[in-house]
Known about the structure:
By secondary structure, this protein is an alpha+beta fold. The chain contains 2 helices and 5 strands, in the order ββββαβα.
Amino acid sequence: MSLLVEENPAKRRFEILVDDALAGFTAYLPRGGVRVFTHTEIRPEYQDMGVGAALVRATLDQVRAEGGRIVPQCPFVRAFITRHPEYADLVVMPT
């Protein structure tokens, strides 16, 4: 199973492709240098395979590489960061 995560700025989301098929996305709203993550969705046939975690991990790695910060409004993203505190430094409190 090959995984590829890439940003789709036109749709304001990061998408994950599994074997070249769109398997899911995590959507955000840009707020200056901060991305507010609002929703994550994984297609049913890709659930319980670690695809969602791979999507969020790669997304947060890319945000970190760009020097960005996030607000995790999405429960899935928030839960991922709780389980992986090494990403907590990316989180800013909403104003």
